[in-house]
Amino acid sequence: MTAYRPGLHLLSTFASTPDCLTNVGGCQATFNRLIDALTLTKVGEVYHVFPNGGFTAVVCLTESHVSIHTWPELGIATFDVFLSNYLKDNTAKTQQFYRDVLTYFEATELSKQELNR
Amino acid sequence: MTAYRPGLHLLSTFASTPDCLTNVGGCQATFNRLIDALTLTKVGEVYHVFPNGGFTAVVCLTESHVSIHTWPELGIATFDVFLSNYLKDNTAKTQQFYRDVLTYFEATELSKQELNR
């Protein structure tokens, strides 16, 4: 049996602007751009917008998943990116995805958790 | 501005049987049963099956999300349930969802991480 190689899961809570936290199209374009740039494989996605403009999204990848939940009324979002290392080491891609999403959101990082799992 | 109340995010790596780890229909039925039983609100989902029968899934909830990735060739899965406490305290529901999924999978827990975020 092949040995399991844990992947990096980064979890963030960050502060952002009302414009970014209600711009589901901008978020989706950013996720898609990064998925392409990092040659990840998307197999499905859900983007759901709440009446106040906040949104919640999950993107299913063959490498694992990305998720985000925004609360414009609180000025924050929770964001996850988890890429397994099953076929190759995706650690650097996980870190780049994380950094670039926070840059897009003009984010102030409130908490960051790093799990190898 | 309303104060942010962190929600519980439980993350598991568990061992299971080849039958469970390749039964995407059984997993989906279990998730749906728990979403109904716990009166959670699903707004979308993705289930993707790999050629070897392993699967990856994300379920988008108004309360946040659930995800699972199975590797039958390794005998394991990684599973997350994250329910925010934005409208009410969902801590007990997060814990029950987690327990019941592991029971369904006849799981041997290899790691469990609990984050309040």
Structural description of this entry:
2 copies of one chain form a homodimer. By secondary structure, the first copy, chain A, is α+β, with helices and mostly antiparallel strands. Chain A has helices spanning 18-21, 24-37, 91-104, and strands at 8-15, 42-49, 55-61, 64-71, 76-83, 108-116. Chain A has a single domain (22-116), classed as S-adenosylmethionine decarboxylase. The two termini of chain A are 18 Å apart. The model of chain A has no long low-confidence stretch (mean pLDDT 95). At the A-B interface, strand 1, strand 2, strand 3, strand 4 and strand 5 of A face strand 1, strand 2, strand 3, strand 4 and strand 5 of B.
Supply the key terms.
41% strand, 3 helices, 6 strands, globular, homodimer, S-adenosylmethionine decarboxylase, six-stranded antiparallel sheet, 117 residues, alpha+beta
In short:
Chain A has 117 residues and is an alpha+beta fold.
Q: Which CATH-level-2 architecture of chain A?
A: 4-Layer Sandwich
**Percent in strands of chain A:** 35-45%
Biggest interface reads: A-B, 39 and 39 residues
Outline of chain A: globular
Radius of gyration of chain A: 14 Å
Low-confidence stretches of chain A are none
Order of the strands making up the biggest sheet of chain A: 2-3-4-5-1-6
Instruction: List how many beta strands of chain A DSSP finds.
Output: 6
Helix tally of chain A equals 3
